[in-house]
Amino acid sequence: MLIFSGSSNKFLAQKIANNLGKKISPVEIFVFPDGEKRITLQEKVVGETVFLVQSTNTPSDTNYMELFLMVDALKRSGAEFVKLVMPYMGYQRQDHIFRDGEGVSLEVMAKILESIGISEVFAFDLHSIKIPEIFTIPTYNLSALPVFAKKIKEEFSGKEPVLVSPDMGGIRRIKEISEMLNISYVTIVKDRDLNTGSICDSQLNGEVNGLQAIIVDDMIATGDTMVYATDLLLKNGATNVVVFATHAVLAGKANKILQESKIEKVFVADTIEIPEDKKFAKLEILSVAEIAAKALKA
Amino acid sequence: MVKTQINNSDFPNFVLLTGTANEPLAMEIAKLLKSPINNPVSVFADGEIRIKIAPNLRRRHVFIIQPTCAPVNDHIVELLLMIDAAKRASSSEVIVIMPYFGYSRQDRKEMPRVPISSAVIASMIAHVGADRILTLDIHSEQEEGFIQQPWDNVYASYALAPAIKKKKLENLVVVSPDKGGVSRATFYQGLLGASELAIVYKERDLSVNNKSDALAMVGNVKGKNVLLVDDMIDAGGTIVHAADYLKEKGAKRIFACATHGLFSGDALTKIAKSALEKVIVTDSVKHRTEVVKNPKIEIVSVAPLLAEAIKRIETGDSISSLILR
């Protein structure tokens, strides 16, 4: 078994390798002045099973292209199986046609990954549980929830906590962690304006008065949802609010928005490597390396 | 010269789309074809591309104009997502017009354990659903074999040769700046009626990317005007080294022409300092303002050529007769 890593999340790749007691196989990724990349594997791969770690967060297109070229290099150089560890899957929110004239971008990526020879996919907390169905190869939807549950137990069990899903799309996720922790949950029903994408109305299903609210979601994109949910929870009497979200997409000024919000603390997983200038004081990063390593060993 | 203006009522069944790669060229092609053109690309907050095609594509032939120049990876993904959206909108045929094909130089395994990136791109385009590809001076024509679908390649000499002829250069020697470009240079020599051909040899050290040195030459340029011909100018090293070398060998006026003017890195600085008098390129890629305004650079449009090629694909006429011999 060999482990290769693209350039998007070397940090997590190294942690996964450490967990497996393996080294990351060397690869040179040279960028030409015009932006084209040249991949050169620095190790023999003939007959090997290769785990390739690459998240396809921003810049998604560059990360996807780098991945496609690496897979091609691995397959052409004789790797028997190339199994993809994609802690964050870019384009996962474009998983169906929302309106006429759109494509299904995630399916394009899935189709390409399969056609260039990926044999299995390990992803984390996919936006929709139907995403593995888009692939025709085994696709595992791993989760950061056990790591989050452990942290919640350690830090918040004595504080009368209540779990919160910031929208109805997260209902399955919130039920799952609620069962893990035996803590009750509430949901926020939010409506989005389909044209502008902004939240136009919302209501709270359940009681949060006097409770420590713990929002759990799959990702933080712009941060708007979290801030909106937090305001609603505090208005309804929650004592304070913390957030757990797997993927720190942190688009635009999300880091600033979150830091300046009434959210007390933001816990994310390391599925996306956060650049130093996007980190903020309220942020704490929890690793999913152990969960990934366990899945790869199985 | 062929007439590019056509009557839209002859074939109302085609729709033009452009990505963000080279809208000025796409608009020019649309103008020549007297057809509307639509850009379906927008970007989400996190940088992911979103495609939403407005016009009705049902049973239409869809031409997507997208050279995959820098930022190459975004432009490739944009293209793939546009093809997908066009297929899903019940178009009858999707034709990809790629005046510049990014990664086309990575067309073989020049060392062990590398991808054949150009093959990856071509097969993705085909796999996502393109029915036909049209390129302009693809780096190596063997790349057409990467996919099963029809792949037409046209030549920018259609636009470049007339521009060079206008300069009325006498005693012209056409020079290939490397061994690989000899047949292209011979082709231009014939087109321009140039008296001689010369070849500059260079040895490229594969372990050092993008570095090249002119070493020797075959032919004689002393006291002659020269035209260096290449398919692309990227970081400019090849063409600048060759030009300076030709100057050393006594060349009089030194011109260069290339289909694709990428001018990456410090190419413009190198060209400014070089013995090159003028560099003629096409608009196959979208040029930055400093390229357009550069006094040493002349840009000729391939829009008439591509419009004519689109017209012929649509009407079922020969593309190969479009190639000047």
Tally of helical runs of chain B: 9
Q: Name the biggest interface.
A: A-B, 54 and 56 residues
* Number of DSSP helical runs of chain A: 9
Query: Outline of chain B, from the CA principal axes?
Result: globular
Biggest beta-sheet profile of chain A: 7 strands, mixed
What is the H/E string of chain B?
EHEEEEHEHEEHEHEEEHEHEHEH
Strand content of chain B: 15-25%
- Summed over residues and divided by their number, the pLDDT of chain B gives a mean of 93
Order of strands, widest sheet of chain A = 10-9-8-11-12-13-14
Structure summary, number of beta strands of chain B: 15
Rg of chain B over CA atoms, rounded to whole Å, is: 20 Å
Shape label of chain A: globular
Radius of gyration of chain A: 20 Å
Termini separation of chain B comes to 13 Å
Distance between the termini of chain A: 13 Å
Sheet with most strands: strand arrangement of chain B: 11-10-9-12-13-14-15
Estimated structural class of chain A: alpha/beta
Polypeptide structure, described:
The complex is a heterodimer of chains A (298) and B (325). With 298 residues, chain A is of the alpha/beta class. Chain A contains nine helices and 14 strands. In chain A, the strands form three sheets. Chain A has a seven-stranded mixed β-sheet, with helices on both faces. In chain A, β9 and β10 (199-205) form a beta hairpin. In chain A, α1 packs across α9 (289-297). The radius of gyration of chain A is 20 Å and the shape is globular. The mean pLDDT of chain A is 95. By secondary structure, chain B is an alpha/beta fold. Helix content of chain B is 29%, strand content 25%. Chain B has nine helices and 15 strands. Chain B has helices at residues 23-32, 72-88, 117-128, 157-165, 182-192, 237-248, 267-273, 289-292, 303-315, and strands at residues 14-18, 37-38, 41-43, 49-51, 61-65, 93-98, 132-136, 151-154, 172-176, 196-204, 212-218, 225-233, 254-261, 278-282, 297-300. A seven-stranded mixed β-sheet of chain B has the order 11-10-9-12-13-14-15, with helices on both faces. Chain B has a six-stranded parallel β-sheet with strand order 2-1-5-6-7-8, with helices on both faces. In chain B, α1 packs across α9 (303-315). The longest helix of chain B has 17 residues, at 72-88. Chain B is globular and about 60 Å long. The two termini of chain B are 13 Å apart. The relative contact order of chain B is 0.14. The mean pLDDT of chain B is 93.
